[in-house]
Write a structure and sequence with these properties.
The protein is of the alpha/beta class. The chain contains nine helices and ten strands. The radius of gyration is 18 Å and the shape is globular. The model has no long low-confidence stretch (mean pLDDT 90). Keywords: ATP-binding, Nucleotide-binding, Transport.
Length: 244
């Protein structure tokens, strides 16, 4: 029996004033799948995931998550969907005035109101153990390296055990070795928790390692789709330019 896609986007359009960003995006992901979105700056990658969680309102088209059409939901109904989704933002987006423990605690408390203190602590330790940073629990973000900040951001994304994780440039600003470590972490957590992932990246090593399937955006449309190996051998010169 064919299963319903976890995410299903059909004919998605989005403009800002006269600037048409998305011109009819079609995208679907199955449970446990990891989809990478590539594209030049301004091609609409981030706008796509903003529309996906209602942070930007679609002008036209359908967006279905967990079988629910989200374009017609009110804010409370949208929030019920959002609590099942984890985010890893490009800049990490940790609260500077909070320690690592407090950052993770804040996310948990916001997500689940009635957790016992012992449960909160064990979930924080599990999340930090997953990213190899248990010893950093009482450090402030300013005391962490760029790679450590990304790891904590990843811990924060997975601490709620989301069914979907959205990654916006998870390896940006990192050196090659640290970027690879983050990509390996994404892959291992994907396998451990069976999450469905959408990863926006310019990092081809990250795309190759973490994506089951790659979509390439061009001029507001998906121009190409396939595995890393398939797209690398594309006869389309523009598609191949990503792999040079």
């Amino acid at each position: 029996m064919e299963t319903q896609p976890i995410i299903n986007i059909k004919n998605l359009h989005k403009s800002f004033g006269e600037n048409k960003i998305l011109k009819g995006i079609n995208l679907s992901t199955n449970k446990g799948e990891s989809v990478v979105i590539l594209g030049r700056s301004g091609s609409g990658k981030s706008v796509t995931i903003k529309c996906l969680v209602g942070l930007a309102k679609a002008d036209k088209g359908s967006i279905s998550i967990f079988g629910k059409e989200i374009t017609s939901l009110n804010n409370n109904e949208l929030n019920a969907i959002r609590v099942r989704i984890g985010f890893m933002f490009q800049n990490g987006a940790l609260y500077d005035s909070m320690s690592v423990r407090q950052n993770l605690r804040f996310t948990l408390k916001h997500h689940t109101q009635d957790l016992a203190e012992s449960d909160i602590e064990s979930k924080i330790m599990e999340a930090l153990d997953n990213v190899g940073l248990k010893e950093s629990i009482d450090k402030m973000p300013s005391e962490l390296s760029g790679g450590m900040n990304k790891r904590i951001a990843l811990a924060r994304a997975i601490i709620i055990k989301p069914e979907i994780i959205l990654y916006d440039e998870p390896t940006s600003g990192l050196d090659t070795i640290t970027a690879r470590e983050i990509s390996e972490l994404i892959l291992s957590l994907q396998e451990k928790y069976k999450t469905t992932s959408i990863i926006i990246t310019h990092d081809m090593a990250c795309a190759k390692m973490s994506g089951n399937r790659i979509l390439i955006l061009k001029d507001g449309l998906i121009n190409a789709e396939g595995t890393y190996e398939e797209l690398e051998k594309s006869k389309d010169e523009w598609v191949r330019s990503f792999f040079i």
